[in-house]
Write a structure and sequence with these properties.
single chain, alpha+beta, Beta-galactosidase, Chain A, domain 5, Glycosyltransferase, Maltose phosphorylase, domain 3, 10-stranded antiparallel sheet, 6-stranded antiparallel sheet, 20 helices, 27% helix, Gal_mutarotase_sf_dom, GH94N_CBP, Cellobiose phosphorylase
Length: 811
């Protein structure tokens, strides 16, 4: 069942009912100011950091779901409604929501009034524009009132949510004509504030929530709107809001526009406040002046669309498969940008309070984003490296505003260091910028401990070697990629917090996954050593990689698949010897991607086992059989009910590892079969089962053991986005950046006869046509570049600003 449709020409998903199975959201903003917006105008805004600079309030896990947003009320002779249906929920004569790239357009129509709101965050501006277009589509004159509404958050979302004894006394506002200022904390910090402006004379306003709503009313029936009269309330403590009241008169067929601007301002250090201590409004005045007319808003909206058009030309496919085209050309790349910006901090499943930017998360997200804006990828790499610890470990998370590591979470996630090697290698392959390796970067954000980025990579590599277990496999630490597999953690009482420890025999848990990851990432470290002239270091590192590969094959293979781990007692995890959790998905993907067992047959057996035991119609589950009871020796993974999250859920993040692994051994039909199972465009027809947005990936889909098999959770902010783009663009379509050029090595379904990829790479455009006349999956027979036969399947670096055509024939 569908609740909308794709509009590929406009690059939009069009929702034609407000009653979607769950709020279907979009993200506004690409740089520092961000907003989340649902198809009924719910959500919130923040500057840089969803915890420390939250601008508007949102209530997670509330009743009804998706409570609070940027709302408009229309009072038409006592008939009250909202263009986005919520919060009034008065039935509309027409409703439509168009989620586009960095913007959302919501249209509602009732009683011959059509209200269309375009929400977007302009390029290079810390504000959200809300362009409200009002049209009289009837034959009689109309006179009605429009009320805006937002609720201010008192900046620190965590404190705002719980410290009522203080916060009910700190809210401060100021009114200047049609601009309502939120200056809570300005008295204390004197460097930032927010405002809400409309480019029209107002009939009235409200800034106190209780006055606007009335003590016993909800957002669906505010006193000010139902009485059709603002109270001109001035918040003094309690809960500040911003609401304008604009009277609108429209003749039959007439149309008017109102431009609302929700802005964030920081004062320069030397102009924090006016001589009398009052608010310095100059930054707000400047921001308002930039966007306060229809013409200015139109120009900003056009610039936003041009921005996205430019980004999406970096990688573009033309194929006979429309669903493949829309995923690769539009929605997957769009989601990669959002995950790069947000990491796992702020979605409808992440509150923006508990998690900042993840070390592993952001390094992975960069893999799907680096081709879009390499300069921003470079900045992110240096930020991430600065949170690394001296021993090569890393803070698992850091706050985006302060860029300081999260001490509460700490480090000791054994996979974290290797992701830095993988992301840096991806950046250098994309750009050829080896100079980044010479950049001085602090450890633990301590400038006294600064060292070249290459030294950070070296310590990442040896962090694994310096922490090996009795089988020569990497110690798992607090966890590896799977945060819920806590093999060094024990608790003796229900509800007791986990404590990392070792057992009495002195053994500690080992990760086969990190062993495979070491073999996967290691060759890039070796190559970077060589490129830097450290040949002895390269030789030594290669010996460690070879030894790890031997250890994985000797101790990490279970006859038909790769083991997952050894627990602290030396017992196998993810083995045929186990009663539950016999086979895990992650090591099968990572080890085969690393090439382990490819030549000797273990890889093929492992992937055959994935299909036999882990595959379902909605994708591959993380493990099977599911754990049916809690086990202190396994940790959090067994705390989930069977079929959910890490306990046998379809963890979409790992499915592309299997796609890539299948491509590694040449099985293109299988790789693309798996791709279609979880790619949103291919499962749009089951939206009533899937529940979440049919245009972006989710982290998890309930597995075969779950009561709600096929239902998704945790959409948008997931490594699924980046890894699926890597899997489809590099492993399946086979356009893979390398140190000395673009390597073309497709592994496609046998019935895919031809496609063309336009790829911008190092200041040149490559138009690459892949032809498959013999219906094979893999194998490059011939390559021509600009009409001349090439000696290899690596297209050279032209860097000349010109277009170059290549034809690749498989056979």
């Amino acid at each position: 069942m569908r609740f909308g449709h794709f509009d590929d020409k406009r690059r939009e998903y069009v929702i034609n009912t407000p009653k979607t199975p769950y709020p279907w959201i979009n993200y506004l903003g690409t740089q520092e100011f961000f907003s989340l917006i649902s198809n009924t105008a719910g959500g919130y805004s923040f500057y840089k950091d969803a915890r420390l600079r939250r601008i508007t309030r949102f209530r997670y896990n509330d009743i009804p779901v998706d409570s609070n947003g940027r709302y408009f009320y229309i009072n038409d002779g006592g008939e009250i409604w909202s263009p986005g249906f919520k919060p009034v929920q008065n039935k509309l004569d027409f409703y439509e929501c168009r989620h586009g790239l960095g913007y959302t357009i919501i249209t509602g129509r009732k009683n011959d009034i059509e209200a269309q709101v375009t929400f977007f965050v302009p390029i290079n501006a810390n504000c959200e524009i809300q362009r409200l277009k009002l049209k009289n589509v009837g034959s009689k004159n109309k006179k009605f009132n429009v009320y805006s509404f937002i609720e201010w958050c008192l900046w620190d979302a965590n404190d705002d949510d719980r410290n009522f004894q203080r916060n009910f006394s700190t809210g401060e506002v100021e009114i200047e004509g049609s601009t309502l200022y939120h200056k809570t904390e300005y008295r204390e910090r004197r460097n930032h504030f927010a405002f809400y402006h409309v480019n029209a004379d107002i009939r009235g306003f409200d800034t106190d929530r209780d006055t606007f709503l009335g003590q016993f009313n909800g957002l669906n029936n505010p006193d000010a709107v139902t009485r059709n009269k603002s109270f001109n309330s001035v918040a003094d403590g309690w809960s500040p809001i911003a609401s304008h009241n604009v009277e609108v008169v429209l003749a039959a067929g007439e149309e008017k526009e109102l431009i609302f601007i929700l802005g964030y301002c920081e004062n320069p250090a030397d102009k924090k406040f006016m001589p009398d201590g009052s608010l310095n409004k100059a930054p707000a005045h400047e921001l308002i002046e930039r966007f306060n007319t229809t013409e200015k808003a139109d120009k900003a909206f056009a610039e936003l669309n041009d921005y996205w058009s430019s980004l999406l030309t970096q990688f573009h496919i033309d194929s006979p498969d429309d669903k493949l085209n829309r995923m690769v050309n539009i929605w997957n790349q769009y989601q990669c940008m959002v995950t790069f910006n947000m990491s796992r901090s702020a979605s409808y499943f992440e509150s923006g309070v508990g998690r900042g930017m993840g070390f592993r998360d952001s390094n992975q997200d960069l893999l799907g984003f680096v081709h879009q804006i390499p300069t921003r990828a470079r900045e992110r790499i240096l930020d991430l490296a600065a949170t690394q610890l001296e021993d090569g470990g890393a803070y698992h998370q850091y706050q985006p505003l302060t860029k300081k590591g999260n001490n509460a979470i700490g480090g000791n996630f054994s996979d974290d260091p290797l992701w830095l090697i993988i992301s840096v290698a991806a950046y250098i392959k994309e750009t050829g910028d080896f100079d980044i390796l010479k950049e001085n970067v602090p450890f633990d954000n301590n400038e006294k401990l600064a060292a070249p980025l290459f030294e950070h990579l070296r310590r990442s590599f040896y962090h694994v070697i310096n922490n090996l277990g009795p089988h020569g496999l990497p110690l798992i630490g607090r966890a590896d990629w799977n945060d819920c597999l806590n093999l060094n953690c024990f608790s003796t009482e229900p509800g007791e917090s986990f404590q990392t420890t070792t057992n009495t025999e002195g053994k500690v848990a080992e990760s086969v996954l990190v062993g495979g990851m070491f073999v996967y990432a290691g060759p890039d470290f070796v190559e970077l050593c060589r490129r830097m002239g450290y040949n002895d270091e390269a030789k030594k590192a290669q010996q460690y990689i070879d030894k790890m590969e031997e250890a994985v094959l000797k101790y990490g293979y279970d006859g038909e698949w790769f083991l997952r781990a050894y627990d602290s007692f030396g017992k196998k995890v993810g083995s045929k010897e186990c009663e539950e959790g016999k086979i895990f998905l992650e090591p099968q993907g990572m080890c085969v991607m690393a090439g382990i067992g490819v030549k000797t047959g273990e890889a093929k057996k492992a992937l055959d086992s994935v299909k036999k035991y882990l595959d379902t119609k909605y994708g591959c589950v993380l493990l099977t059989p599911a754990y049916t009871k809690y086990s202190p020796a396994l940790g959090e993974i067994s705390s989930y009910p069977p079929g959910y999250k890490e306990n046998a859920g379809i963890f979409c993040h790992i499915n592309p590892w299997i796609m890539a692994a299948e491509a590694t051994i040449g099985r293109g039909d299988r790789a693309f079969e798996l791709y279609k199972k979880i790619a949103p465009a291919y499962i749009e027809d089951i939206s009533e089962i899937h529940k979440l947005e049919p245009y972006v990936y989710s982290q998890m889909v309930a597995g075969k053991d779950a009561k709600l098999f096929g239902q998704a959770k945790n959409s948008w902010l997931t490594g699924t986005a980046a890894w699926n783009f890597v899997a489809i663009s590099q492993f399946i379509l086979g356009i893979k950046p390398d140190y000395d050029g673009l390597k073309i090595d497709p592994c496609i379904p046998s019935d895919m006869k031809e496609y063309t990829v336009t790829r911008h790479f190092r200041n040149a455009d490559y138009v690459i046509t892949v032809k498959n006349p013999n219906g094979v999956c893999k194998g490059v027979k011939e390559v021509t570049i600009d009409g001349k036969k090439a000696e290899s399947n690596i297209l050279p670096v032209f860097a000349d600003g010109k277009k170059h055509t290549a034809t690749v024939v498989l056979g």
